[in-house]
Amino acid sequence: MSAECGVVCVTGGSGYIASWIIKLLLERGYTVKTTVHDKTKTQHLLSLDGANERLQLYKADLTAEGSFDSAVDGCQAVFHTASPVLFQTSNPQRYLLFQADLIDPAVKGTLNVLKSCAKMPSVKRVVLTSSMASVVCNRKPLSAGVVIDETWFSDPEFCAKYQPPKHWYMLSKTLAEEAAWKFANENGIDLVAVNPGFVIGPFLQPSVNFTVEEVLRLINGVHSFIILEFVFPEGKWISLYVCAVA
């Protein structure tokens, strides 16, 4: 069956969305090559049906060019979901921290995955898990006549200057997706970007991820609303989305 369905790669395999992508791909008969940063956090993947026969783990570094070559080699499609999530810090050198821990891995990681894909003639399509964050922070007015399409991006300058707090995560996702489209267009890569919002639902990994944790805090009364980082300009984006990975 795996020979008929083909081989695909999923980056950031131990993540919330990636774990579900891997589960569904295995259920449909695909062989899955997934990259992980820490192999000690992959037991939930190894216990999936079909994992023993058709799941392969690779260690990769988002910031190291060529790190994804072996994982992408021979794949027909690549799902790039690996990207850091970081919203705030007490570090006085916060710009340097966000640049090193959030923006650089997001942008360089996306480009490094695409560079690996560009080397492999077997890769027919790349699916990028971007975010609603790369769309909504642009200061453009919303009205009934406004159409949000592929030209609608967050404004990097606004994200970097917004106070308080600076929209560092939004900036990282915006810069990463813009870089992805530029590279894909220049190198003939069939790229699809998915922009989910606040993702909730059942989780496969043993630890609770950020978005589910925030919803639990809302349910338990710790929050009376979703945290301020998700109250986007004009106060219109206090929204909760359920992402069905298919």
From TrEMBL:
<keyword id="KW-0521">NADP</keyword>
<feature type="domain" description="NAD-dependent epimerase/dehydratase">
    <location>
        <begin position="8"/>
        <end position="206"/>
    </location>
</feature>
<protein>
    <recommendedName>
        <fullName>NAD-dependent epimerase/dehydratase domain-containing protein</fullName>
    </recommendedName>
</protein>
<dbReference type="InterPro" id="IPR050425">
    <property type="entry name" value="NAD(P)_dehydrat-like"/>
</dbReference>
<dbReference type="InterPro" id="IPR036291">
    <property type="entry name" value="NAD(P)-bd_dom_sf"/>
</dbReference>
<comment type="similarity">
    <text>Belongs to the NAD(P)-dependent epimerase/dehydratase family. Dihydroflavonol-4-reductase subfamily.</text>
</comment>
<dbReference type="GO" id="GO:0016616">
    <property type="term" value="F:oxidoreductase activity, acting on the CH-OH group of donors, NAD or NADP as acceptor"/>
</dbReference>
<dbReference type="InterPro" id="IPR001509">
    <property type="entry name" value="Epimerase_deHydtase"/>
</dbReference>
<keyword id="KW-0560">Oxidoreductase</keyword>
<dbReference type="Pfam" id="PF01370">
    <property type="entry name" value="Epimerase"/>
</dbReference>
